[in-house]
Specification:
The protein has 453 residues and is mostly beta strands. The protein contains two helices and 35 strands. It has a single domain, classed as 7 Propeller (Methylamine Dehydrogenase, Chain H), CATH 2.130.10.10. The strands form nine sheets. The protein has a five-stranded mixed beta sheet, with no helix packed on it. A four-stranded antiparallel beta sheet has the order 1-35-34-33, with no helix packed on it. Strands 2-3-5-6 form a four-stranded antiparallel beta sheet, with no helix packed on it.
Length: 453
Amino acid sequence: MTRWKWKRIAGVAMFLGLLAPFDAASQSTAEWPQFRGLTAGVAEDHPALPDTWSTTENVAWATEIPGLGWSSPIVSGDYVFVTSAISAGNEREPIPGLYDPGASSGKTRSTAAHRWMLYSLDFETGRVLWTRELEGIVPPEMKHLKNSFASETPVTDGRRVYVYFGSIGLVAAVNMSGETVWTANVGAFNGGQEFGAAASPVLHDGRLYIVNDNTTRSFLAAFDAATGDNVWRIDRDETENWSTPFVWENEIRTEIVTTGRRRIRSYDLKGNQLWELGGMTGNVVPTPFAQHGLLYLSSGYPGAFTRPVYAVRPGASGDISLTDGATRSAHIAWYQPRLGTYNTSALVYGNYYYTLLDRGFLLCHDARTGEEIYGRQRIVPGQGFTASPWGYNGKVFLLSESGNTYVISAGREFNIIRINQLDEMSLATPAIARGSLFVRTRSKVYRITSDMP
């Protein structure tokens, strides 16, 4: 499809966005409004989506973004949004690699003032349309060296961009012209390991949901997206969490699903708990998602003996934890005790459940049954993986912390087709919209497409 037709579609989508929130079915091609998009990292096939690139090849533009942020880009119509935190001092640079995340040398405290920023970029050119400074203070909390003070991905409904900076407790709504509509402060807290925050906000039916698990007072909160009013806030018996909540619209009801070190919990839209599930690991990062009528839940701290993956059916209530030795139940379609990932969220592409381990291995299972298709396949030795995988045009893409993307054939056979290099550290999961891939590295956001002029 030609560029002008895509621009026209985007314009119509933006117009409709003034009237109603995005509909996942109609907007999935033109928009990428949240972390991992509306389809958990899977993009509709498009001839312009690239499988080959470098710092110059198939690059429509590369825009430098000041400061440090590992939030993903999001896309709405002719706008690309990204956040960052800019320090007034000299900060320790993040280091890619596989060092022990719990080592004290991996944590850092900043004594310099930071500015928390939202950037709007032009889809076609990458030009910075506007910037909005949302806060300027010295960070009150520590973070892990590989984390940032802007790791939460914003979310948009096409009318406003909603930003959450957990390190300072700030929630904000900014309109498409860059004007701040409302702000709220939910408090700045940290977990027991003081690694900082990373759980992104989510939108559903006019409400914005925020989760923050910490050692002071963990909570899940709902805000009116139009006004910023706190609709409800419930306490959680948790201490640490980097997992984005998931709104699961299944055949029975709509649920807000959250993971945590102690329990997986699902809530109704009023904040009442529906069901819970035990058995997670110490550090929980992967985001829940749904495909094929199943909810996929996982965690995989490398030092834990059990690194679980659960595929849950709709309609559960109460405690649905598995009994010892069980691998399925009335509400759990399948369970794998050692398949969970640490930082990456899994990918269901077609009939296959892909697991990307942070130490550079890929595994493939049947998404409906959990049956192994192939076991651990080495991608590359000595490189870490933090960004979640994505898929389109019959291929699976794996972005390493070194900025190399490994293109894998989707399906039952493991095959590395090619390696695309951007020569810079990258932890952020990319965005995909309108035939373009948006990759964030340490200093830049790239728009990559085969539809070059």
